[in-house]
Design brief:
The complex is a heterodimer of chains A (about 80) and B (about 475). Chain A is an all-alpha fold and about 80 residues long. Chain A has one domain: Non-ribosomal Peptide Synthetase Peptidyl Carrier Protein, Chain A (Orthogonal Bundle), CATH 1.10.1200.10. In chain A, α1 crosses α2 and α1 crosses α3. The longest helix of chain A is centred in the N-terminal third of the chain and has 16 residues. Chain A starts with a helix and ends with a helix. Helix content of chain B is about 70%, strand content about 0%. Chain B has 21 helices and no strands. Chain B is globular. Chain B starts with 5 loop residues before the first helix and ends in a 13-residue tail after the last helix. The mean pLDDT of chain B is about 85. The chains are: A mainly alpha (about 80), B mainly alpha (about 475). Chains A and B meet through α2 of A and α13 of B.
Chain lengths: ~80, ~475
């Protein structure tokens, strides 16, 4: 079972690695242009490796990864539904 | 009824006043009735098309929510129904023409259609919205399907004919029309409406008359290199102003009744790369393609650059085909797909030892110039009547140089002037916002919301709209 704090921390680290700086948990990543839709796939791959979970990206939308808050919710929701 | 027709504009005033006078629970039915009436002004029989589509999609969505174990089946049934209706009206003749070409090649007799049917207006737009509704329901974003919500979502008249392409989760929650009246919102709506009218009549239409003339088959054959470039730029500007005008008017009219629609354009000709162009051009279509087609497809082929590039080309070809049943539109889409692939390959070099080169200022300027040139070139097959005309024009632009001016100097000056406007447009918009904020910051009731300034500007805008009015000119995107 995934721990929300563990997921949030992983999301913060993966996002910071990808964009080269720390951002706020509520900061928008895609609509602000920090990350594009192709980078989201990379972000998902990094999260999967770090948390040892499978994220069915084909059933999700880029909006689900719009911020650290959204990423945390999405990963927890996906993990719960499996 | 056109958005820029006198009858529409005159009816809009009492229609808006009545909307705000009605009790909140009545408003959604009033807007639905207005939307159906508006669609019926084009062709009353075609009101049945979005109704049938909404009924089918509602049924499929209800079943897939109620029976998740069979969700896949109901989802694909719904999608198949939408695509069947869309394909029947939109691609029937195109398919037949291509089959006949093949039959002729084998010496067989061509087939013909029993009856000709026009394409229902806006079908490309509401079909995509219907598919997004089904995908959202399948992904659990819509928990309960209500027919009246879905039908109103599809029929909502400001976006019915040519978008913006809205997601249900954006428009659905607003369709109770419970937002209280706000003068500020009404004024913002009027701003967008008047600006749209000016863009259409003052910017798009004058360019359109030259474009119509210059893209005729005989003209294309005689155009010089300068003419071809000027015409390609003119069409790029015309389609931008025309569609941005429509989008502004749609967003503005929705704001008059308290509804917020998403933006569709953000200075596209200031794009820094082909990928950036699609973040600025027809943004709601780009978003639809990204969310409902490109992202799910590429997610399944993660880590394979070949599959990524192939899906970019296929997806962009489909975007071209969505615009119209013709190979010119497909060529336009494939060209954009190729630009995106090229840019992705370049970006991937940024992860190698060439990172310093890819991130240099020179490279950034190079991509800006490439994007502008490539986007302009891609408009050629989009606008020319035949592939041969497109090839001839592109050859004249890029290789078979011939100099000369075949049109009056007014045409070249107009194109130059409009292009210059595009260059300064973001700075003008910024100055306008700053001026507005300054006026709003001033103390005093009248000046606080620029009540004095706005009527003067509206009067100027409407005067320009009337002076340059050409009611025979339809919005380009209405045909898509």
């Amino acid at each position: 079972m995934l721990n929300p704090n563990q997921v949030r921390k992983a999301a913060q680290e993966v996002v910071a690695e990808m964009i080269g700086k720390k951002v706020g948990d509520a900061d928008y990543l895609i609509s602000s242009g920090l990350i594009d839709s192709l980078s989201i796939l990379k972000l998902i791959g990094n999260l999967e490796n770090r948390l040892s979970v499978t994220i069915p990206a084909g059933d999700l939308q880029p909006d689900d990864f719009e911020s650290v808050d959204f990423i945390t919710d999405t990963v927890l929701r996906v993990a719960r539904s499996r | 009824m056109q958005f820029n027709s006198y009858s529409y504009l005159l009816l809009l005033i009492p229609a808006t006043a009545l909307f705000w006078a009605l009790p909140v629970p009545w408003r959604r039915w009033y807007v639905l009735a207005m939307s159906i009436l508006y669609y019926a002004t084009w062709n009353a029989a075609f009101v049945a098309v979005p109704l049938a589509l909404a009924l089918g999609v509602h049924l499929a969505a209800r079943l897939l929510i109620a029976q998740p174990e069979r969700g896949r089946r109901w989802f694909w049934s719904g999608v198949a129904l939408v695509l069947a209706i869309f394909g029947f009206f939109r691609y029937r003749l195109f398919l037949l023409a291509n089959i006949n070409h093949l039959l002729a090649a084998f010496g067989a007799r061509p087939m013909s259609v029993a009856w000709q049917i026009a394409v229902p207006l806006g079908i490309s737009f509401y079909s995509f919205e219907a598919i997004s509704y089904l995908i959202d329901a399948k992904q659990g974003r819509i928990k309960k399907s209500r027919f009246s919500d879905l039908y109103l979502f599809i029929m909502f008249w400001p976006h019915l004919m040519a978008g913006p392409i809205v997601r249900f989760r954006e428009l659905g929650p607003q369709l109770d029309f419970a937002r209280p009246f706000e003068l500020r919102m009404l004024l913002r709506g009027l701003d967008r409406l008047v600006w749209g009218l000016v863009q259409k009549n003052l910017f798009a239409n004058p360019l359109g008359s030259w474009v119509d003339q210059g893209f005729l088959h005989n003209a294309v054959r005689n155009n010089s290199t300068v003419d071809s470039w000027a015409l390609a730029v003119a069409f790029g500007l015309q389609i931008y102003f025309d569609f941005a005008a429509y989008s502004n008017m749609a967003i503005g009219v929705a704001q008059l009744i308290g509804i917020v629609l998403p933006e569709n354009f953000r200075f596209p000709y200031h794009a820094q790369s082909p990928a950036d162009f699609w973040n600025r051009w027809h943004m709601t279509l780009s978003r639809w393609i990204r969310d409902y087609l490109f992202f799910p497809v590429t997610a399944r082929f993660r880590g394979s650059p070949g599959a990524l590039y192939a899906s970019l080309l296929v997806v962009m070809a489909l975007v071209g085909l969505w615009h119209g049943a013709g190979w010119g539109f497909v060529a336009w889409g494939v060209l954009h797909g190729a630009y995106l692939v090229l840019y992705r390959v370049w970006e991937s070099l940024g992860e190698t030892r060439l990172a310093a080169v890819t991130k240099s200022r020179l490279a950034a300027w190079g991509w800006r110039i490439f994007t502008l040139t490539a986007v302009t070139a891609a408009w050629v097959p989009f606008r020319t009547a035949t592939g041969a005309d497109a090839a001839h024009m592109l050859a004249g632009m890029f290789g078979r140089f011939r100099f000369g001016f075949s049109y009056p100097m007014d045409f070249y000056l107009l194109v130059l002037l409009m292009a210059l406007f595009c260059v300064v447009e973001p700075f003008l918009a910024e100055s306008w916002t700053r001026a507005e904020n300054t006026i709003a910051a001033l103390r005093g009731g009248l000046l606080a919301h620029s009540y004095l300034l706005r009527p003067a500007i509206y009067a100027c805008g409407l005067l320009l709209f009337l002076i340059f009015d050409d009611r025979s000119t339809q919005f380009i995107y209405f045909q898509f």
